[in-house]
Design brief:
Elements: H1 2-14, E1 30-32, E2 36-40, E3 53-59, E4 64-69, E5 83-87, E6 95-97, E7 107-108, E8 114-116, E9 123-124, E10 129-130, E11 150-151, E12 156-160, E13 164-170, E14 182-188, E15 196-203, E16 208-213, E17 219-221, E18 231-232, E19 238-243, E20 248-249, E21 256-257, E22 262-267, E23 273-280, E24 299-303, E25 309-314, H2 318-321, E26 328-333, E27 344-347, E28 351-357, E29 363-368, E30 372-376, E31 389-392, H3 410-414, E32 421-426, E33 429-440, E34 446-457
Parallel strand pairs: 10-11, 15-23
Antiparallel strand pairs: 1-34, 2-34, 3-4, 4-5, 5-6, 7-8, 8-14, 9-17, 12-13, 13-16, 14-15, 16-17, 18-19, 19-22, 20-21, 22-23, 24-25, 25-26, 26-27, 28-29, 29-30, 30-31, 32-33, 33-34
Signal peptide: 1-18
Protein name: Exo-alpha-sialidase
InterPro entries: Sialidase_sf
Length: 458
C-alpha cells in the first residue's frame, strides 16, 4: 500500500500541465548551484511542523536578508519575532542579525521612501460575548453593527479538521474596535534612517473577518495583513496580493462562500491607502461538497514584457480537504488587472507560488509540495514555460530522518515546509530559499535547516 501511495504522489508531483504549452525543445536551461546553510534548527523528531520554517528573503542594496519563523504555525504567531540573517557575499555565508533589520526591508519607492508591511498576529477575542444562535430569528438585522465586547451572529461558518469552528463576519458588522480596514506599515522617508509607524487605509468592499474558535473555546480574530510580496508596477503604483479569511462574502452578491478568495490591491499614494484592483472567486471546477479545495489562497503575480500580468494561485488547504497537494492555477490580465482570464490548471501541485524578474528580463517561478520546482517563462506573455527544474524530489524522503518511521505522515514523507521564495541575484540568476528537515549538521545529525541556492538561466 505504501508503495502504491508513493508512486501516486510521485506521479502527480512530476506531471506538469502548462496552459496552452506544447512539448518542444526549450531554448532555455535552468541549473542550480550548491545549497548554502542559512540556519540549522531543531531536529525534526523534536517537532516536525512549525519552528524553523517559512524563510522570507529580501534584497537590499548591499546585502540579502531573510527572516525565519521559529514559532508554531498558528494565526496567533504570524507577527511573532522571527530570527533574521544577512549575507554580504550573494548568499554563500550568513550571519544572524537583530530583528530590527525588518524595517529596512521595505519596498523602495520612486520618491525614495521605503515601506514595509510586517506580518501581524491574530487578536484574542475570547472575552467577547458571542450572540447565541437561538437569537437568530427572521427579524435579525444583519446590517447592524455590534456593540463593543460583542460578536454578532456570523454571516457564515465553516470547520477545520481537529475541531476548529471558523465564524465569518462582514467587517462592517463587528464592533468599532475590530472593524477597522487598515494595514500596519513602517515607512522610512527618503533621506532618513528611522522608520515611522503608519496605518494604511484599505478600501476592501465586503471585507470578511474570521474568528477561529477552538475546542477549548478560545476565539482568535485572524489578521488581514498582505501575505504577498509588494511590487512596484509599471504604472508606478504599489501592488500586493492578498487572500481572504477561511470563508468570505462574495462582493458581487454578498453571499457567503466557504472558500478563500484571491485579491490584488494597489496604492497610488505611496502606501498611504490601498484600493482593491482585482478579486477572484474560487469556482474553477464548479461547486462540490465536501469541497475539494480551500479556494484561491497564497498567490503571486508578475508584470510581463508584453504588458500583461500573470497571476499564479494556490488551491491546496489541508485543514479543509485532508490533502497536502492540489493543483496550482494561472490566470492572465491584458488590461492591468481590471479583468482576468478564467483560471486554469498550470500544474498538479503548487504551494506558495513565487515569481521574480531577472535583470535580463527573464521571469522565474518557484512552487512546491511535494517537491520543490523552478520554471522560467519561454515568452513575453507568460503563456509558455520550461519544464520544471526539480530542486527537491517529490518522492518519499522519510528514510533520510534521524529516526525513520515505518508509517510516515505526509510531512515525514516530504521533509520540508515547501514554502519556497525566490529573489533576483544578477542578470541571469536568482537565489532560491527553502527548508529541508533532513539536512545534516557537521556531526551528521539531521536538522530542520533553511537553505538557499543559486538558480541560473542559461
Amino acid at each position: 500500500m505504501r508503495y502504491i501511495f508513493r508512486s501516486f504522489l510521485f506521479l502527480i508531483a512530476c506531471t506538469s500541465y502548462a496552459a496552452a504549452q506544447e512539448k518542444t525543445e526549450s531554448p532555455l536551461k535552468l541549473t542550480m548551484g550548491e545549497p548554502h546553510v542559512i540556519v540549522r534548527g531543531i531536529r525534526p523528531e523534536e517537532q516536525l511542523w512549525g519552528p524553523y520554517q517559512f524563510p522570507r528573503p529580501y534584497r537590499l542594496k548591499d546585502r540579502y536578508v531573510v527572516s525565519v519563523h521559529v514559532k508554531n504555525d498558528d494565526i496567533s504567531n504570524y507577527g511573532s519575532t522571527a530570527l533574521w540573517f544577512e549575507s554580504r557575499d550573494k548568499g554563500k555565508t550568513w550571519q544572524e542579525v537583530d530583528a530590527s533589520v525588518a524595517q529596512e526591508c521595505g519596498l523602495l519607492l520612486a520618491n525614495g521612501d521605503r515601506v514595509y508591511m510586517p506580518p501581524e498576529s491574530g487578536v484574542d477575542v475570547s472575552e467577547y460575548k458571542q450572540i447565541p444562535w437561538n437569537k437568530y430569528t427572521p427579524a435579525y438585522d444583519f446590517s447592524k453593527q455590534a456593540k463593543e465586547g460583542t460578536l454578532p451572529i456570523p454571516d457564515g461558518m465553516t470547520f477545520w479538521m481537529g475541531g476548529t469552528t471558523i465564524n465569518a463576519y462582514n467587517a462592517d458588522r463587528l464592533p468599532p474596535s475590530l472593524s477597522k480596514k487598515e494595514w500596519t506599515l513602517y515607512r522610512i522617508p527618503a533621506g532618513q534612517t528611522q522608520p515611522v509607524l503608519e496605518q494604511a487605509g484599505v478600501d476592501w468592499p465586503y471585507l470578511t473577518r474570521v474568528v477561529h474558535v477552538s475546542r477549548s473555546g478560545k476565539k482568535v480574530l485572524k489578521s488581514i495583513f498582505p501575505r504577498g510580496n509588494p511590487k512596484l508596477g509599471p504604472d508606478g503604483a504599489i501592488w500586493v496580493s492578498v487572500f481572504s479569511g477561511e470563508g468570505h462574502l462574495n462582493p458581487e452578491n454578498g453571499q457567503y462562500s466557504p472558500y478563500y478568495s484571491a485579491e490584488l490591491f494597489r496604492s497610488e499614494d505611496n502606501g498611504k491607502t490601498f484600493q482593491r484592483r482585482s478579486h477572484l472567486e474560487y469556482e474553477a471546477n464548479g461547486h462540490e461538497f465536501p469541497y475539494k479545495s480551500g479556494g484561491f489562497s497564497d498567490s503571486d503575480f508578475e508584470f510581463m514584457p508584453d504588458g500583461s500580468i500573470v497571476w499564479f494561485l494556490r488551491s491546496t488547504w489541508y485543514s479543509s480537504t485532508g490533502k497536502e497537494w492540489d493543483p496550482m492555477y494561472m490566470t492572465r490580465s491584458t488590461d492591468m488587472g481590471r479583468t482576468w482570464s478564467k483560471p486554469i490548471k498550470f500544474d498538479r501541485v503548487g504551494i506558495l507560488p513565487r515569481l521574480c524578474r531577472l535583470e535580463n528580463g527573464m521571469t522565474l517561478l518557484c512552487y512546491a509540495r511535494p517537491g520543490t520546482f523552478v520554471r522560467a517563462a519561454l515568452n513575453d506573455s507568460g503563456t509558455k514555460w520550461t519544464e520544471p527544474l526539480v530542486v527537491m524530489t517529490p518522492g518519499d524522503r522519510s528514510g533520510l530522518a534521524n529516526k525513520p518511521v515505518a508509517e510516515p505522515t505526509f510531512h515525514d514523507w516530504d521533509g520540508s515546509c515547501n514554502n519556497p521564495e525566490i529573489v533576483p541575484l544578477d542578470d541571469n540568476s536568482a537565489l532560491l530559499f527553502y527548508s529541508d528537515f533532513y539536512y545534516p549538521d557537521e556531526n551528521g545529525v539531521k536538522r530542520k535547516t533553511i537553505l538557499c541556492r543559486k538558480i541560473t538561466v542559461e
